[in-house]
Amino acid sequence: MKYIKQAAIIFTVSFIAELMEQLIPIPVAASIYGLALMLIGLVTKIIPLEKVEAVADFMVEIMPVLFIPPTVSIMASVDAIREMLIPLVIISVVSTILIMAVTGRVSQHIIRGDRAKADRSESAVTGGHADE
Question: How far from the centroid of its chain's Cα atoms is residue 7's Cα?
Fold first, then answer.
């Protein structure tokens, strides 16, 4: 029963996201709305992590299986894709490099912020005097 409730919460958020895609006249995919809604729900504790964690972990584990249908479609359309192969490869390589660079920079920023925060709290505990 626990898994059914967790799946129901996730599917409800997905359904609301689908409705938002239909009702809001902005070209944003329902999956983006769903991710934003789930993030907001988890951060604000409207949706406690424990209420979706087990099913979410399961969905992440089976994610590779979900890529099989699109892969088969791409293989079936190889003649049409062959005409666009060079632009697709260039776009894929450039976007991958950009995503890696941005992710690295954001990670560095977060790590530096955590270190600065730890240094400030350590300084407050020792009264601002470093051990010599």
Answer: 18
What length does the chain have? 132
Q: Which residues of the chain have pLDDT under 50?
A: 132
Q: Is the pTM of this model over 0.90?
A: no
Residue with tokens 């560095």: 108
For residue 22 the two structure tokens come to: 């239909």
CB environment 48-82: b (16+ within 10 A), e (fewer):
eeebbeebbeeeeeeeeeeeeeeeeeeeeeeeeee
- How many Cα atoms are found within 13 Å in the side-chain-facing hemisphere of 103? 6
CA separation, residue 74 to residues 20, 29, 67, 87, 90 (Å): 29, 21, 11, 16, 18
